[in-house]
User: Fold these one by one.
Assistant:
Number 1:
Amino acid sequence: MISFTLDTLSWACFIIGSAFILLGSVGMLRLPDFYTRSHAAGIVDTLGAWLILAGMLLQTTDLISGLKLLLIWALMFFANPTTSHLLIKAAHQSGLKPLLAQGEKDMQP
Amino acid sequence: MIEFTVSACLMLLMLIISIAIQRMRHLFAAIMLTGVFSLLSALVFTTMDAVDVAFTEAAVGAGISTVLFLGALGLIGNYIEEKNIVSPPRHALALIVCMLTGGALLYAVVDMPAYGDPQAPAQQHVAPRYLQQSPRETGLPNVVTSVLASYRGYDTMGETLVVFTAAIAVFGLLGNINKRQRNKERRSVTQHDDIVLSVFTKLMLPMVLLFALYVQFHGDFGPGGGFQAGVIFSAGLILYGLTFGIDELLLVIPPWLLRIFTALGIFLYAGTGLLTMLLGGNFLDYNQLAHGTHGQHYGIFAVELGVGISVAAVMLSLFYSFMNFRPALPKQESDKS
C-alpha cells in the first residue's frame, strides 16, 4: 500500500514536472522578448527540475542517495532563481526595455 | 539503443554549437556557448562511464576556463572589430587548412577500433593488468585514481608540472600581481550592490569549499581527485572574488601565499617520490612507505594532495593575473577619454 502510494506520488511529480518543462520550452520559443523568455526558462530549471528531483527522491531506497538528491534539490532551489535574477538584472542595467502591451498580438499561441 | 540515441543527440548538439560559435560576432555569447559545449562533452563522457573525465571537463571546461575567457574579454572588448575580420584570401587559406586537417582526422578514424572493442590495442596491453590487479596491489576501489596516481604517477607529475609551467608563462605575459597591486585605480568588474548575489555567495562558498575537500579526499573511492578538487576549490574562491571584488579576495588569499602553494604542491609530489627513493625503492614506489597496501594509500594521498594544492593555487593566480592586468591603451583611445 505504501509503495503504491509512493509510486503514484512520484509518478505525479514526474508528469507534472515534465509538463512544466514542456511548457517552459514552448514559452522559450514563443514568448516575444528577453524578460518573458527568461521567465519561461525559470519555470524549466526551477519548478520542472525540482518536481522531477522530488519524484526521484520518492523512489530512492537508501539514505545516501536520498541525501545527495536533497542537496541537489537545495542547490537548485537557491542557484536557479539567483541566476535568473542576475540575468534579468544585467539585461535591465544594460538598458534592455521590456516589451509592453503593443506587442501583445505576438503572444498568441 | 537508448544509449545510442542519447549519444547521437549530444553529438548533434555539440556540432550545432560549434558551428554557432564560429558564426558568432558577439564574443560574450561565444564564450557562453563554449561553456555549453564543455557541459555537453561532460555529458558525453558520462554516457561513456568516464565519470572522472566528465567531472574534470565540467569543472575546468565549463567553470574555470569560462571565467578566464571572461577575464580576457574584459581586456579586449565584446565584439570583433570590422578591421580585424580576416580578408577572403586568408579565409580560403584557413578553410583549406581546416579541410585538410579534418580529412586527415576522418581518415584516421576509419582505422580506429570500434568504441568498447575488447580487441582494441588499448584494452590489450596493460589495461587488463590494471583492472585485475589494482584492488590487490593498491587497495583502492577507484581504478582511475590508482592508475593516475600510482601506476602512472610519473606521468601525472609531468601533468602537474605542465600546469605549473602554464602559470609561469601567464605570469611572464601578463605580469605579476604584486607590481600591479600598488596601482590603486584598478578597474572593478564586480557587482557589489546586488544583495541576492552576495547572500547567495555567502551561502554557497562554504558548501563549495567543503565539496572540493570531499572530492579531494574521496577520490580514492569514487570519482574525483586532485585536479578536480583544486579546480572546484579555486572556483569557489573566484565566485567570492567576482561577487565581493578582487580586493576582498586579495585580503583572504594574498598573492605571495599563492606563489608558495603553487610550488608546495609540486614539492609535495616530487618529495614523495624522493622519500621513496631514500627509503630504498624507485621514484614514486609507494610500497616503501608502509607495509602492504597502506604504503600505496599514503603515497596516493600525498601526491593527490600535492596535485590539488598546485592546481588550486595556479587557477587562482591565473584569475588574479587576468583580472588585474591593465593593458597599455592605444594612443588615440587614451586621448579620447
Number 2:
Amino acid sequence: MNLRAYRTAVTYFMVAVGIMSVALVKEAGTPVLAFAVSGALGSYLLNRRRIHVLPSYLWNILAAVILALFALDYAFLSGTLIVSAARFSTVLLVLKLFDLRSRRDHLLLFTLVFFQMIAAAASTVSPLFFIVLSLFIMGSIWAMIIFNLERDWEAHNPSRPVLTRPVFGPSFALGTVILALASIVLTLSLFFIIPRLGAGFLNNDTADTVKVLGFSERVDLGIMGPVKKDPTVVMRVELPGRSRPPRPIYFRGMAYDYYDGRSWLRTSDTRKALPRGPEGEFRIRERGRSRLEQIILLEPLDTDLIFAASFGTSVAADFSYVLTDDSGSLYLPTTPYSRVEYRVYSDITPFEPVQKVDSRTLEKYLVPPPMKKNTEKRIRRLLVSIIKGRKTPLSRAAAIESYLRANYRYTLNPATNPSKSSLEDFLFYSKEGYCEHYATAMAVLLRMAGIPSRLVTGFVQGLWNDFGNYLLVRQQDAHSWVEAYIPGRGWMTFDPTPPEGTSPPETSALSMYLDSLKWRWTRHIVHYSFGDQKELALALDERTRRFLGSIKRSIKEAGRGDHKMADPLLLLLAALVLTTVLAKRMFSGRKNSLSKTSGFYLEMLHILEKRGLTRRDSETPMEFAGRTADPVVKKLTRIFQLERYGGARLGSEDLKRIKALLKELKETYKKGKGSGLARERAK
Amino acid sequence: MSLRPAISAPLPWLTALAGRFLSRPAKTGKRRSFLRLPRILEFTREGKWFTAGLFVIGIAAVNTGNNLLYLVLAMLLSLIIISGIMSETTLRHLRVERSLPATVFRGVPVTVRLTVVNGKRRLSSYSFTVKEEELDGLETEGLYLLELGGSEKVVRTSRYTFGRRGEHRLRGFYVETRFPFGLFKKGKEEVCEETVLVYPNVKASTEPLRAAGINAGELETNRKGTGIQLYGLRDYTLGDDSRYIHWKSTARAARTIAKEFEQENDRTAVVEFENLCNEGEEKEFEERVDEAASILWRLMELNYRVGLKTLSDTIAPAAGRDHLYRMLHRLALIEPAGGGRPVVRVREP
C-alpha cells in the first residue's frame, strides 16, 4: 500500500467517524446525514481520480455562506447551538472533501471531525459514543502518524518529496491498533482520575422521554393492556450487596383513591416536602427491619414521579427536595426530562410500618364506585360468599385475594362487553383480564367489605440481569395492585393478579448482555460523579491496605514456617514482577544476558563512564586502559584479561584485591583528582 | 468529608513510582548536570493548537459536568501521554558515533561518517534527526532517518565545515524527533566526545610563495630537471629518455648504457612567522597563519626540506609528511606572542 492510498483510507475513515458522530446528534436530522454520506461517496470517486471540482478560492466563499446559513439555522430553525454546529461542520466537511489538495486541507478535515465528536459528546448519552470515540482515537493516531512522517520526510528530503519507502506495512498497522487500544485504556483510567469539580448532577440528556402510562392524575381502566407488551426500558435498579431478589419487588409509583366506574382518580393532590435526616437523606418514615438498598437509574420519563420498592423509608440523592403526598407517592420538584439516579432504602415487608392514620383520612378509601342497584346487589352476594366465615379484616382481604387469583383467567386481550361496566363484565361475564381488572375488583370488594383500600400503580420486579447484577424494569413490567388498611397493622400490599401476570417473559442472553453494557455505561460513565470518585478512592485505599496487610501477614507466616496457600494477590504480584523482568530482558537490547564479561570489569567501566570515559567499540581493553593512563585501571584490566581469556580462576585473594582496587578507583574519581580524563586532556 | 483516603490510597504506588525514577542509575558517560533535563521538549504549532483545544474542552467539561466531555478530555490527555511514550521509545538507546578524516583543514568541508545504532532489541526508531551539537565556527549537515529497526545500524555521511583552526571539542549529538504525532519536538543529547585538531586553511596555489619572494616557476623547472650532477651509469631500459644515453659508454660496452643523475632534494627553506597581532586585527593574523601553512605545504610539494620558525619556538628543517603535519599542528595551535603586525617570510639559507 503506498502512501497516497493510505492517506485516502485514513481520510475516509475519519470522515466516517465524523458522520457517525453527527448521527449521534439526534436533532441534526436525516437529510444532513444523507447529504454527508452521498457527498462522501461522490467525493471518493473524484478523489480517486484526483479530480478537484472545487477551486480553492471558492471553498472559502462557500464556507462564509454556510456560516451565515448556520447562523440563520441557529436563530430560526434548531435553536440549539450544538445541533447547528453539527450541521454546519457536516456541510463544511463534505465541501472540503471536494477540495483535498494539501496537508492543510486534511488537517482542517480532521479538525472538523473532532468538532463533530465534541458535538456528539455534548448532546448524546448513548453508549455508541464510546465506539465512535474509540474509532476516533484509532483514526486520529493513524492519521497523525502518517501525516507527521510524511511532513518530516518532505522537510528533510526536498528533492524526493514523495515518501515511497514502505514503512506502512502490516506491522505498522498492527502497531497503530495496539497503540489505539493502549490509548483507549489510558483514556478510561484518566477519565476516572480527572477530578470532578461540579456536583455531577448537571447533564444535558436530550434523549427522548419515555411516555409512561398509569401515573397521571387519572387512570382509565384498560390502558395498561397495550403497555404490557412494550419492552422500552423504564429504569434499572441495582441492589447493592444483594443478588437476585428472592421474591418480586413492587416498585410503588402512584396510589388512587376514587373509582368512578371507568377510571381511577386522585381526589386530592397536596404535596409536602420530606424532612431531611442527619445525613442529608430524605426521610419518608421510620425504618423497619428488612432493609433493602436500591440504586435506581430512571430513564427520562414524562413524569415527576419517582419509584421506590414498597415501602420506601428514605431517599438519598442530589435533589434539592423530594415531595410526598398523603398516599405516600414520591415526587421530584420538577419533571427532569433526563436520566435521574437516586438511592432508596425500603422496608420490603408487605406492611407499611405503622403510622398514625386518623379515621377521617381513611374515609375516602371506603367510598364504593357508583353502580346500578342490581349490580351492587350481585357483587355484594359474591362478596358474602367469598368472605363467609372470615372475621378479621386481614383474613377477609386474604380471602378476596386468593379468590380472584384462583377463579379468573389472566389475559392481555380480555373479551369486552360494551353494554356492561368493565367491573361487572370482569367479575361475572368474561371472567378474564389483567392486573388492572384484578386490582380494581379487589379494591371495590374490599371497600364493600368495609376495609379501606386503594389502587396502586408501579412496576413489579422486572428482569434480573446476571451480567450486570441489576433489575431491568421495562414498560411491560408496569403493574397495578391493591393496598388495604388493616387496623392495627397499617397499609398492606395485596396482589390479586395470578403469577403469570407478573412473571416476566425470558429474553435472550445477548440482549441481556447488551443491556448490561448500556447500564454500565450510563451508571459508570455518564453518571460518574465526585461521589463515585470518592467511593473509588475509598475502595482503592481499602484494597491497598488489605493488600499490604496480606503481605505483612504472609511474611510473618513464612517466618513461622507456616506453609499455607499463598495469597492470590501476592501470587499476582510475583507474576507481575516476573513478567516485568522478562519483558525487560526481551526489550532491552543493550544488556546481553549471555555476557561473559566479569562483573568487576563492568563495574570499573561504569565508574569510568560516570567520569566521561567510555570504552570505544574499536578499543581493546588494554588500549582503553592505556588511554586512561591510570595504573589502577591497568591492573584491573590485566586481572580481567587473565580471567576472561587466560582461563585463570580467581581465588579469594584475587577478589579481595579487586575489591580494594575498585574502591581505590572510586575514591580517586570521587575526589576528582588524578582523573584519567583530566590527564587525557592534558596530554 | 475526609480527604485522607483519597490522599493515602495512591501513596504506596506513587512512592514505588518515585523510587523507580530516582534510583535509576546514570547511563553511559553522560556528565549531565543536575539542572539539565534529560529530554528537551518543545511545542510545535500543531501541539500548541492541540493544547489550547485541550484547555477549552477541559473548561467546558468542568462547566457542564458532562462526563462525555470529560471522556474527550481524557482522550486528549491520553494522546499526549502516548505521544510521550512513543517519542521516548524512539529516542531511547539510540547511539551515534562519528568518524572524522585524519586531517581537517579550516574552511574545507570534510565528509564525516556517522554511525547511528539502535540499541533496542526489537523496537524501531522512527523519523528522527541527528545533528552535531552546536559549536562555535562549526557548520554541519543534519541527518534524517525515517526508520531504524531494532538492533540495526546505519552509516551515513555528513559534511562538516570548521570555520576556525585549532582544537575543537565535539561534545556529541542532538537527536530530535517529532514522532509520533508531531505535537511536540523531543530531543536528547547523545554524548560522543571527541577532540579534533583543525589545521589552518592551506591554499594550493603559488600565490603565497610569490608573495614571499620565491619564484615558483623556477623551482618547478629545477625539479623537472632532477639535478645536474652525474650519479652513475646503468643499462638502458625501455622507457628511458633517449637523451640520457651515454654514447661513449654504449660504444665501449656494445650495449645501450644510460646516465643517471642525483636527486636534487637538498634544498632547504625556513618559513619564518612573526606571530604578532594587534588588537582587533585577528583576521589578519589568521590570514597570515593560513599563508604560512600554505607556504609550508607548497614547499614540501617542491621537495624542500622545510623548517618553521616562530617567535615562540623553532622546528628545524626536515623532509617528510610527518614533519609537515608537525609544523601544521604548531600553526593550528599558534597564538599571538605579542602586539604588532604578523609577518611571514621564507628564507633559504
